[in-house]
## 1
Amino acid sequence: MSLMSEVGQKAFNLGVPLGVHLDVTYRCNERCVHCYLDHDDRGEMTTAEIKDALDQLAEAGVFFLTFSGGEVFMRRDFLELVEYARRLMFCVKIKTNAVMIREKEARRLRELNVDTIQISLYSHRPEVHDAITKLPHSWERSVNAIRFLREQGLRVTIANVLMRVNLSDHYGTQKLAAELGVHYTLDPTITPMMDGSTSVLALRIPGEELPEIFRNPALVPNQEEFCAPPKPPTEDDLESYSCSAGHSFCYISPYGDIFPCVQFPLPTGNLRRQKFLDIWNFSPQLQEVRSIRTKDLTVCSSCSHAASCTRCPGLAYMEGSMRGPSTADCEKSFYRTGVPTANMLRQGLSKPGSAFGHKMPLVQIQALALPA
Amino acid sequence: MPENRKYIARSSAIAARALAGEMMIMNPADSTFFTLNEVATAIFQAADGRTPLHEIVRERICEQYDVDPEEAQADAEQFVADLSSHGVLLVSSQPLSSETAGEPTP
């Protein structure tokens, strides 16, 4: 176990919020076809409110702080917030489309010793990327920004969300990342929109295409192990928890709402009404999330993939139950190994069913209705 | 430089936070990640740039832990040398202005 993993496990066991993902705005200068966000400003936290939140997060023991959005640079105070966070000694990571980063911003991020900057890039072909972002010349501006950041010696990761429209471009994008001297990550996950709409899910790549990705040695170096049939879950596996969401990690929206994860829209409290640690320690919703072990899952506890599945409790929650299956992850487990999941077998399916295809009502991200 | 005139300060370049009394440190310059034990954490937290190292060892280590002063000083010197080689601590024969906003919390 790496030192980082040991620390993560320690924080998990102690219930310390080691990492927080903070969206400082939902506003954005791009209009990506797959985006799950509503880009209107419905009352973002002010500069002072975010600084107060950062003070509370530092006090609570948060170490890894990810600033994201929306587009973070849509806030004029963004660099001021980063500076404040760095003075509090957070390990700061930034997710951005980078179109507003030029030499000056890159230099300032270097001065502030930001740890990593993750930039969304959908293709090595400008026309494909720009068609996804709906912002002309966005590819050119993002790639220029990557060069500015690299010139400053900053660590950059290209995040390539993969969907039907850019499915064939991941090799080229990965090659571009290598040419630019940056890391590359690929994610085939498309999340339902915050208003509950599932329309964007039509952009998901067909499950049948997943094996090709899983067999890309540049993306999955240990394919034999990765694609091996699942080992039966042990007692320890059944006693384990899904992931760090709500255990050592949480998400904060621009409006101060706290959720277990950015992909787990279960409202647990609001920083405008409560202190962070009161929410973290005493929220009934977070306590419920923390109580769920693999053995408690309604379908997945009996699944042969239980020990190795990437089941996301947030996606399961959006499908109807945080204790239920996440069909998108069933799909990945099946196409990774060729072994059907318990969720498929109970439905008599030979291939995974389309998540949300049955029009389940979705939960929406909304503020908690708490007394002022 | 005389050992009793060594001043240490935390670099503003690093990220740091205590987890259950032990410090986690990330140096973004090279992505080096450290964890410090309780004693090393005490020295790190006392590295304000104004207190001489020997005073930190005497007041933060020898008075709180059952250790031999000479051995503690030698260990502290080695620890400071290690962390300064990674850019985590700044070392000087003169007092340093603390580059950070304050002690890493909690």
## 2
Amino acid sequence: MADEKLTQIYIMGKAYDVPVGVTIMDAMEYAGYRFIRGAGCRSGFCGACGTVYRREGEYRLEFVLACQEMVEEGMHLTQLPFTPAPRSDYTLSELDPSENVLLQHYPEVARCVSCNTCTKACPQEIEVMDYVQAALRGDLERVAELSFDCISCGLCAMRCPADIKHYHVAQMARRLHSVSDSPIPEHLKTRMGELESGAFRVELDELVSMDLDGLKAKYAKRVIEKEEVAT
Amino acid sequence: MTQPGFEGLQDGYPDYMRASIAEVEATRARRLQEGHQAPLDATGRAKLLEEWHPDYKADRKREISVGPSKGDRMPHEVADLLEAYPTVDPKSVDLSSPDLDVSVLILGGGGAASVAALFAVEEGIAPKDILMVTKLRHGDCNSVMAQGGIQAADRDNDSPSIHYLDVLGGGHYTNKPELVRALVEDGPRMIDWHEKLGVLYDKLGDGTYLEAHGGGTSRMRMHSAKDYTGLEIMRVIRDEVRNVGIPIIEFAPAVDLLLDEAGHAAGALLFNLETDESVVVRARAVVLATGGFGRLHIQGFPTTNHYGATADGLIMAYRAGARLIDMDSVQYHPTGVAYPAAILGQLATEKLRNQGAEPVNSEGEPFVFPLEPRDVESAAIIKECYGEEKGVETPSGIRGVWLDTPMIDEIHGPGTLKSRLAAMWMMWHRHGIDITVDPALVFPTLHYQNGGVEIHADAATGIPGLFAGGEVAGGVHGKNRLMGNSLLDYNVFGRRAGISAARWAKAHEPRNLSLKHVMTYAEELKSAGVKTDRVAPMILPDYRREAVLARRLDALR
């Protein structure tokens, strides 16, 4: 584009002119960076592109995903694509979903000083500190609910003055909450039993060996289940 | 909004689009009352595809000139990589003393690879004897980005047989029957496995699953975890791989398979992306789970795919003698983002449509049943924009149709969209658009590699000792995949690949390694008259701008 509007940003301190209206990731590539680390799904789901920036004239750091955030004039930025965060190994079936289980595995949760820096660092707008407080109380359901949109980018852990590894705590809490409070539905158990006893074997044998005309006729006769709409 | 690029916008959209949005609003009540138009019959679908689907443009493909699928028509972008010379010169590698020696080597770090690793352990291989190697990080994959859901026939009005018919009809009866059978029969089993691992699926008050339709389904069997379904499944499985202690090397993609004298898979040649070293891994069995090809941007389409989706596995397997099937067919997801340009081509999940959002044209009129199979839905949207000329043009010259997202809360009640489609709400919110208030502008985007390496129901490829699962494998979906069957695919065939590889590894001894097949393939290319400086696998796409690349120096090499 010949009439492309450009703006100046600073990538690790060095000035580059990049197009207006593109993401930080696209701007860095425009500037000449070829990513090895710091780029993953490029759609905001994988957490590979955690990025820190500061606006010209401001003291505060902002925390974003490079693939989702638009560039701004005078942005000073750097990527933080890796957090050396230890995690605690566990065997899910042997965990006791008691109040203390998260603290036993991640005792540093108790060091939380409620500074809310984690929440401010979250590019997913998660109430991180609130779920750390819930973890402290052993409220697995609340941790699961609040942390659900977490993409494990690690920016919270990078900023925490108490060195909490929030996203690992949340992962463990969600899994434990699922197996202890959200039982396997009866209809799935029934279906598993039917499969076990070979209930669909004959039907499937027939379908697998059916000729094309037979299949087409069967497909055309399918009845589409109607969705009941709440009124 | 204050961000640059947002000036002159009204709640995220340029002023000139507002007139069209007003037409969408004006017809909404009537459309909600009338319900959707009926799905097309077989003849209607065939005509629409023939005229408007990108797969049906003959000049965008060519016959491949060498290898096991010689003569098959494939997109130029794929053929270019298959007709290319090795990225790493096979003569430069010393294979006499492998750097690493394992039982089961798993190439890939996404869903299929992780599931294969866990089931290889279940099948009796010690975690330390398994090695996962991946190009980016563990979990940087398409699996993590899937939003809408996973199919499994587990309700009493549904059955694996009904699922089977939906899959086969959606795939135009080109799927391999034994693979579809495996897919639908294992479906409930995989959901049960996820439950035991602690995946949090959406459930209703009575404890049953919240299940919905997808394009081309005849029963509501789409299980979801908000619209983070892929993320939720992947992060749980990854967490379990870590708990079990399966070794993984990140940023070390495989660039070629290693075979033994008998032509059996015997390991892989890796490339350490950060140190530029080659690494030789010997193994008794190899699992290929390297994903698809979205980053090849077939026919110039933007893509929903992750950064590493460059078809490396296809290239390696093909050179080693594996057949590729259904490579003439590409999945374009009907609804990629058309505006704003910053997120062009990113996924607008099909779940938006299964929750009630309807595609409408610039005049606010519907033109297609919202849940046709993906190829049909995509063709209808392309036709509406370029045949009927009823698309909305963006400032960057792209056309799109409206996906009427505010219908979701109208149908299911306020707050539904934000809770069931949190990721979607957030994606547009970051660009100043509230999709509970305004519709979203969409156009098809390159989404999935329908075909791939041919496998059997036990995930075996044509190369003894090589097993494949997930997007790299072909045959499961035929010429068109339905929503919710890719998450299921990687679980079903990842599991089968892991089990088969473990069994193979237990029955076979490690042997001498060879790259002779790579040299032979290069000779065949020469004999076929392929003169090019192209090399493959690509490993990563290059999005640096021309002006930078033109001045590029390799001074530090």
